[in-house]
Design brief:
With 262 residues, the chain is of the alpha+beta class. The chain contains four helices and 15 strands.
Length: 262
C-alpha cells in the first residue's frame, strides 16, 4: 500500500509499540486494529523509510493484546533511537500543537486546519498558528582537560550535566550562550563553536549545542537554578546523563574522545 499512510499511535503521551523478543518497534499498521479506541485527532507526518506516515491519537484502551504495549515517550525514544527519534519527536509536537491551539489566542474563536500542512487558522481574525518550536542552547565549556559540569536540584542523585537554557526574544544564539553561562555560573567564555542540534519534544525544544573555551571568572551560582558546579576531568567525572539520545551526552562523549587521543 505505497500511498496509504502508516499509522503511529499515541495515547496520553505514550506510544504504541510492538515487542519482538527483547526489542520494540513501531507496528506495521496501515489500517487501525479493532481493539484501538476511536481517533481523537490525526495528522500527516511526511515519510519514514519512504512510507507516508501519520500520527493518530486515541483514547486507549489501557490494556492491549500481546505483543503490543503503550510506552511513555521518553523510554520509547530511547528504545527506538536513532532511526525513529525524529519521527516520534515530530509526532508528539504536532499533537501538542493541535491540543494547544483549538481556540484562537487573540479572539477565542475555534480554529480550523488550513490545508494539508501544519497550520491552524482563525476564521474570524485570520491569525495563524503553527507547531511551536522553542530554541534552547546547551554548551560544553572546556578549560584545558576539564569541563564544567553543574547539578540542578531536580536531577537524579549525583547526576551532573552541561549549562543550558532557552533563547530569549530578539537574542542571537551566541549571545544566549554568553548570557546563560554568566547568569548560572558567573563565567565568561570565548571561541563559541557550533556542535550539533536536536529536536527535544519535552515539550517543544530545539536544542542547539555548542562548545566554548573558558575565558575568565570564578564559579558562582547566581540564579538559584543550580545547587553545585565545578570543573571535572575524565578521571573524576560525577554521575552523567545516562541517556544516549541526548545531545548533552554526545557533547560529553566527544570531549572524552578528544582527550583520549592525546
Amino acid at each position: 500500500m505505497p500511498n496509504t499512510p502508516k499509522k503511529c499511535y499515541f495515547c496520553n503521551d505514550s506510544v504504541l509499540l510492538e515487542k519482538k523478543d527483547e526489542t520494540y518497534q513501531l507496528p506495521d499498521f496501515f489500517e487501525s486494529p479493532s481493539w484501538l479506541d476511536e481517533y481523537q485527532m490525526t495528522h500527516p507526518l511526511g515519510t519514514y523509510n519512504d512510507i507516508p506516515m501519520e500520527v493518530v491519537e486515541v483514547n486507549g484502551p489501557e490494556t492491549l493484546p500481546d505483543p503490543y504495549v503503550w510506552l511513555p515517550l521518553r523510554p520509547a525514544l530511547e528504545t527506538l533511537y536513532p532511526h525513529a527519534f525524529n519521527l516520534l519527536a515530530r509526532a508528539h509536537q504536532v499533537l501538542s500543537w493541535d491540543k494547544n491551539h483549538r481556540f484562537c489566542g487573540r479572539c477565542g474563536i475555534p480554529t480550523q486546519l488550513n490545508g494539508g500542512g501544519f497550520e491552524k487558522h482563525c476564521p474570524s481574525c485570520h491569525l495563524s498558528f503553527y507547531p511551536r518550536i522553542s530554541p534552547s542552547i546547551i554548551v560544553l565549556i572546556r578549560k584545558g582537560d576539564q569541563i564544567l559540569l553543574a547539578r540542578n536540584a531536580n536531577f537524579l542523585p549525583n547526576v551532573y550535566a552541561l549549562i543550558a537554557g532557552f533563547v530569549e526574544a530578539g537574542e542571537r544564539l551566541e549571545d544566549a550562550v554568553h548570557r546563560e553561562v554568566y547568569e548560572e555560573v558567573g563565567l565568561q567564555v570565548k571561541n563559541i563553536r557550533y556542535f550539533d542540534s536536536q529536536p527535544w519534544p519535552f515539550p517543544d525544544s530545539l536544542m542547539i549545542a555548542f562548545t566554548a573555551d573558558y575565558a575568565g571568572g570564578e564559579i558562582e551560582l547566581r540564579d538559584g537554578e543550580l545547587e553545585a558546579a565545578g570543573w571535572y576531568n575524565v578521571d573524576n567525572f560525577p554521575g552523567l546523563p545516562s541517556s544516549a539520545i541526548s545531545v548533552s551526552r554526545k557533547l560529553i562523549d566527544s570531549f572524552v574522545q578528544s582527550v583520549s587521543k592525546h
